[in-house]
Known about the structure:
The protein is an alpha+beta fold. It has eleven helices and 45 strands. The longest helix has 23 residues, at 472-494. The radius of gyration is 30 Å and the shape is globular.
Amino acid sequence: MRKNKLRILMGVIFVCxxxxxxxxxxxxxxxxxxxxxxxxxxxxIEKIVFEDSFEKDLQGWSGRASEVLKIVENNASDGKKSLQxxxxxxxxxxxIKDITAVISPGKSxxxxxxxxxxxxxxxxxxxxxxxxxxxxxxxxxxIGGASVPRGDWTYIECQYSVPVTKNPAQYRLYVExxxxxxxxxxxxxxIPFYIDDVRIIQLPPPRPAQVETDIPxxxxxxxxxPVGAAINSIDLDSTKLHNGLLRHFNVFVYxxxxxPESLQPAxxxxxxxKADALVSFAQKQKVKLRGHTLVWHNQTPKxxxxxxxxxxxxxxxxxxxxxxxxxxxxIVGRYKGKIDSxxxxxxxxxxxGNLRNxxxxxxxxxxxxxxxxxKWAREADPAAKLFINDYxxxxxxxxxxxxxxxxxxxxxxxxxxxxxxxxxxxxxxxxTVNDIRNAIRRFASLxxxxxxxxxxxxxxxxxxxxxxEADREILLEQAYKYRDxxxxxxxxxxxxxxxxxxLWGLSDDxxxxxxxxxxxRTDYPLLFGKDLRAKPAYWAIVNPDKLPIGxxxxxxYQNESLNPADPIYSYINSTPIVDQKGITYGSFKATWxxxxxxxxxxxxxxxxxxxxxVTMYLEPKNRRLEKKSDELISISVPRSKATQDSGSEYxxxxxxxxxxxxxxxxxxxxxxxxxxxxxxxxxxWNDFTNNQEKGTVNYGTLSMKQMPRTLDVKRGSITFSRNxxxxxxxxEPIPMTVKTMGVTEEGSTFKVLWDENYLYVLMEIKDExxxxxxxxxxxxxxxxxxxxQNNGKTTSYEADDAQYRVNYRNVKSFNGGxxxxxxxxxxxxxxxxxxxxxxxxxxxxxxxxxxxxxxxQINEADATGSRIGIRNWHNDTNLGYKDPSGLGxxxxxx
Length: 894
Ligand code: XIL
């Protein structure tokens, strides 16, 4: 009974979004005490409110069921003893302790503990959770967890903000392995484990909101590019805090107060006070205005579309058009000469490229209403720039194509349209800066103005992502995205392609994304924070020296060779060493074996000097210490010992003696010393303060992973006719040997080729019995290609990652990618079938030497249409559809 409840309630909690962030080994053990003691006198400190080190007794911990808890000696993350948990019979069994007395509603906490298991699988998923009792109901809140390697004490850290509830809740903290039903849990899931040094740290309350008056005004950084923000009429009140942020912008738009429902709430009753206030503010301050919006399917009152006599019936086309004409001419006419740009029509196209089936379209029957809207707006103010505005047009797809074609047609027919507004409600991961640049250029090529009209950069990838904290890492990622975006904006403005940029709000406390697409899932998409202070996103553009330092994570691959020229290095991405302004100084690659971590680093430096050197730092336990680690290993290689030196760049190789284990993580940094007559300048991969000798707080992280399977792919183009291209006969087939699931026939193979546009894949499948009965395409007899174009090895899909699936009858299905350019043919043959595919390159320029993440898969169905087997070239996790980190690697060669 209990296990079911646990599972169901956890599901609910995930949706409610109490999920907190997790970090492994993210903080030191013993040394944090001193840090805390040192800073206790300072304000805004993190305070340790609870600590169990198990040096004496169980300290109030008990088992959740009948598992056995014991204090054991000589196995501890620190000190001598730790808490051992054994004889677990369900995954949810583990140690639990009441912590109600140490946490308070309304406050936020970091909860950290050290975890170890010694027998069982190479790694295991561990969960840290809270059991909350409110009255007679219990729920289970997962606050974090980690994938922990066997045999290494690993630090797991979570965050939790205790909600304020009507009645006080009781909280118990517990640790378990990832949930599985009892009949599916194996010995691996029921491993005995140890925990130690459990610690709860109270986080300082958020800083009070304050507008900084001594920082540069944002828009002044851009030349010939007006930069604006959406505001509300209340922000014009100089006694209000937010008013202080207006100095950062020289364009404004009302977020809501010039929409149809605000300006004409009832037919003929125009309400102009707030709009008038904005217009006179702009006249006084000499700033530009956008008018948003005249025709939109949202926030337009119902009466607009109703028959005047009979509100139950729709208005006639004539009536709708006369109302539109009156609305547009009254408003645009009133502010004639005072509004720079009008969003004449907003969001008239659907994601699939069709005209939106709005009340306007239903009544008008065609896009005539769009043409008329522009005509009437032009008549009312010939000088205002007239825009069509939309979202999801910042990247390639049917919607962008449809809008492009619409604008082209309207222009050709003489409709007075001046510009395209890209709303740009984007997120940290998607679309890329390059996607947006291409969109700007594509629309600009139509001879219209392009504006970014509603920019915000969400920290969430989609509406299904649970609520999360905006930690330092995500805010930095966002900062770099903003930096690269505005750099691109400035370039496109200089090239005459971009006219204006407007952010959709002043600060994170009031962004509409706090309630969209998920009510209550707070977001952090703008330049100023919930406390109104400038965020890393602002500083990344204004002064990168003021950015906090993030912790970068990269992979070291297992490698038995000590040879710096070993070909393995040509299958590993190089990690750039770049400063906070985005300037690159060099790059490196890391590998490991049972005796050492090896680093191959290349430095761009065209003035050889005796002071040139590269130093590597490794902290074996990945502890974040404010002082020099007593276990620190560092190695310095002078340029004179370079394995290669062309005069303009040199390469060094270092073998750092150390015994890493698979899946373990170490603290790591690399520093370039550039000698010259003036002295030595330094540049680091992670610690921009170059203080690696003084502490490990700002080190990056190296994770030890197995080297994936690799394949060299030759250049060659194929053509699509009825049959497969004969060029395949010259290519060696690669066997598909990885049995990911169930039963599949032996003998299937694949071949790959590349040219400047496509990766070509031929899959020849042995399968006597073919079925496409199942409605799930992945359960039909089919093949799949997974591609990670930047070989980013991320654990979720980025824009360059895609999955293409084709069944034996050539029916295609997609996950990401470019559906339009993808091509395939298939044929059933004796004993099986083949599929020939052209997988488009969308995010990279292919060239010899380039590496990509790649895998192929066979789905095998039985006669009833159920999938009975999966076979791959490399990855046996069956997670390729959502997690490209496990893909193999292909290298493009001539
Ligand atoms: C949003 C506002 O920000 C919210 O305050 C309001 O509740 C709904 O509308 N595209 C648009 C904007 O064109 O008008 C929308 O603004 C966001 C999406």
